[in-house]
Amino acid sequence: MKSMTGFAKKQFEIDGKTYSIEIRTLNSKQLDINTRLTPIFREKDLDIRAMLNVLLRGKIDFSITEDIDKSQGVSELNRETAKKHYLDCLELYKEFGLNSDHLMEAVLRLSDVWQTSDVKELTDDAWAVVVQNLEKAIADVEEFRQREGEILKKDFIYRVKLIEETLDKVEPYEKERIDTVKERIRKYFSDVELAVDENRFEQELIYYLEKFDVTEEKVRLRKHIDYFNEVMAESDAVGKKLSFVVQEIGREINTLGSKANHADIQRLVVDMKDELEKIKEQLGNIL
């Protein structure tokens, strides 16, 4: 099980210039790739995106930047790029009523507004170096995601176990609940001074109590919990499947609560809901 959160950074040199690859991934319902490339690599944008597709899902922020301090050649301002960034950002600043006094300073810190005077075309050998480092960065992201996923998996196992243990605490109250209902109905008939046919009373009581029987809900809830644990052990991307199972677990807990008719059982239901919500909060991060 993997998280959608990941990070990796790699540095490499091409023709005496130092470049950095950086990948940041966050949770998202689908694959959303954003790339920021120094000019010499822009022609390879589609190739880079194709390689990043292996990450399957999540918001992917990818960048290749040139380390100006360690690069040879004189850095020159790309006026057209800087002007475009400034005007685009200025519109956003005006739209949100933000102070744009230091906007140009922020634009000038962007790596793609600077270029070296001796920029060359990207050669096959240079691209091979990029591919090699990109593959390493992707592998590091996958490893990061795996570690994060294992942490979340342990938490999920702990939470569903608490739900199961809380469910076990329901049973002792069930007989007490039936006895309470019997006494309540008998008291009602006693208060209105009506004669009661014991056989008929027992028949009607059984019919009445069947509406509050939670045996099926408990059985289904345990089965859903078992399935949840099975899915977590799968090697594929399981985030969406786990979300469906959690919905079923929540449905059974809600039904159990609606049938409870007992204060202590209701409290146990609230405890189970609380643990389930904690699972839901983290489930959006699962690949």
Task: Give me some keywords for this one.
6 strands, alpha+beta, four-stranded mixed β-sheet, about 290 residues, two-stranded antiparallel ribbon
What does this protein structure show overall?
The chain has 287 residues and is of the alpha+beta class. 60% of the residues lie in helices and 15% in strands. It contains nine helices and six strands. Strands 1-2-4-3 form a four-stranded mixed sheet, covered by helices on one side. A two-stranded antiparallel sheet has the order 5-6. β1 (6-14) and β2 form a beta hairpin. α4 (124-168) packs antiparallel against α9 and α7 packs antiparallel against α8. It starts with 5 loop residues before the first strand and ends with a helix. The mean pLDDT is 87.
Compact summary:
By secondary structure, the protein is α+β, with helices and mostly antiparallel strands. The chain is built from nine helices and six strands, in the order βββαββααβαααααα. Among the domains are: 43 residues, no CATH class; 136 residues, no CATH class.
Write the layout of secondary structure elements.
Elements: E1 6-14, E2 17-26, E3 31-37, H1 45-52, E4 58-67, E5 75-77, H2 79-95, H3 103-108, E6 114-116, H4 124-168, H5 171-191, H6 198-210, H7 215-232, H8 239-260, H9 263-283
Parallel strand pairs: 3-4
Antiparallel strand pairs: 1-2, 2-4, 5-6
